[in-house]
Amino acid sequence: MDVPLSAWLIVFGVIAAMLAVDLFAHRTAHVIGVREAAAWSVLWVLVAIGFGVGIWVVAGAEFGQQYFAGYLIEKSLSVDNVFVWAIIFSAFAVPRQYQHRVLFLGVVGALVLRGGFIAAGAILIETFSWVLYVFAAFLIYTGYRMIRQRNEHVHPEKSPVLRVFRRFVPMTDAFHEQRLLIRRGGVLLATPLLAVLVLVEVTDVVFAVDSIPAIFAVTSEPFIVFAANAFAILGLRAMYFLLADLMHRFVYLKIGLALVLVWVGVKMLLLDLFYVPTTVSLLVVATIIAASVILSLLATRGQGRRAVAAESAGAFRTATEEELDALEPLWAGGSRRSPRRRSR
């Protein structure tokens, strides 16, 4: 597939435009409800489908199918990301109105990091074709491990990343609205929101180790791999607010995701012996995910929404009005925050 520079510029332009729209729409911190999350989820999916249709029309059906297969794989595997985010937010008791800003910055960081991973993976495959077999074995093993550990959960409060962060970065115990850093007594301090952002970025790196090799199983085109990843990631924030309180109902989803990893691993392993059409891969992945979701919902029917519970990562609170008014300029030369007019 000969990808012109203009195609890359279109992708980056669409991503930048959608991020700008999202940031403008959420410029004021507020709790995102189910209806708003559903509307944004539909928008992100429509944008992703529209882009895939464009690839189909311009580059042909095969590349269009590769994009949709990659997008479906990435979107499916990202559901695990959503569950981990919910646990992190619960452990830090992050107020719901501040969660979108963390996820927005996390998604921007994920796009940059995954772009680097994809470039590195493409170079490795181009230079050492046998690395595909390493990817295949890794995916099969990861799927097997996911099935065995399907009932285990992450524990943010025990994360070595959090321990290192707390050791080397001075941190306050209070959320100061959406700020990541504050200055108090002349000392620059991180807020708990920055620690949460670091954990979100680290978890995305961990999940990228699985998902990116999985997409390379259906296409070797870096442009398609990046586009599928990008558009799947862009919709993750809306997916989180839509599904976070329903994660307890997806009891068989992790098994479905594990089977997807095993499937793409086997497909990659047999690449030189037996070619599996992209259409078949797309149907297999869609069937596995649909079956796991339907069976999960049937098994848990009657259960309502409930927040994810997690062990506390510390005693965190929301800064008082007096603390916010007393904030010092973050950078030298900045102006002191003007006091708020309190309602009586």
From TrEMBL:
Its main location: membrane. Keywords: Membrane, Transmembrane, Transmembrane helix. The keyword Amino-acid biosynthesis does not apply. It is a multi-pass membrane protein. It is found in: Membrane. It comes from the Bacteria. Signal peptide: none annotated. GO terms for cellular component: membrane. The chain crosses the membrane at residues 6-25, 37-58, 78-95, 102-124, 130-147, 187-217, 223-243, 255-276, 282-299. Belongs to the TerC family. This is TerC family protein.
